[in-house]
Write a structure and sequence with these properties.
Length: 151
Amino acid sequence: MFLCGAAPGSASMASAPAVEDTHIHLDLRQRRISVIRNGHRIGPWPVAIGDPRTPTPTGVFQVENKRVNPQYESTKSGRVHPVTGPSSPLGHRWIGFLRQGPNQFGIHGTPWPHWVKIRAAVSNGCVRMLNAHVQKLYELVDVGTPVKITR
């Protein structure tokens, strides 16, 4: 199970080590995300980011885990959302990049594309992408890929 600021419910998906010349770059100011591979930019794609009260963390992290059809657990109630897939609050792909205690931050899809299209600051710290875009990002990165988040 995952939530922006939630703990995953199962072990990380195993993957090959990240290619050293590949990283994810998230620009919070422009609210866009890209993959940089061998000096070439793939993307950028628009994103929704953390609300000012629950901001998306900045710094250099790495992909810790990846999931297809992740389960969402509410940060407020602890209730597990029964729906998985594109209609889930996490969409159909999850790329986790930071744990803080029981909480985990990640890049994921969303059933609410409006927030991504207007590049809103509405999440609990996670990065929301359109489902088609996060699927492409998911295919481009592995566990261990660096994630650089800047303002």
